[in-house]
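Running low. Invent one:
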Amino acid sequence: VPLAHLQGCSIDDVRRFQRQLRDEFSFEAPVFGFNDQQILLRVSLQAYNSLDQIERLADVLGRLGTNSIRV
């Protein structure tokens, strides 16, 4: 998932965003740079994930400034 709101941010800002996802919202997901042009969030779902969890992730990302998620 592209994280446009983190474009041009420092690596510390990116790490802070990742920690916030984990510590405040209990989502563990890698955030990384791609081609020196994009900051991406890697979302991985398994059969045991519910639609409620997916919708909650989309809501959290929306509240944190990312409007890239569509469920």
Observations:
- The two ends are 12 Å apart (CA to CA).
- Strands lie at 31-34, 38-41.
- Residues 4 and 16 are 15 Å apart (CA to CA).
- The chain has a mean pLDDT of 85.
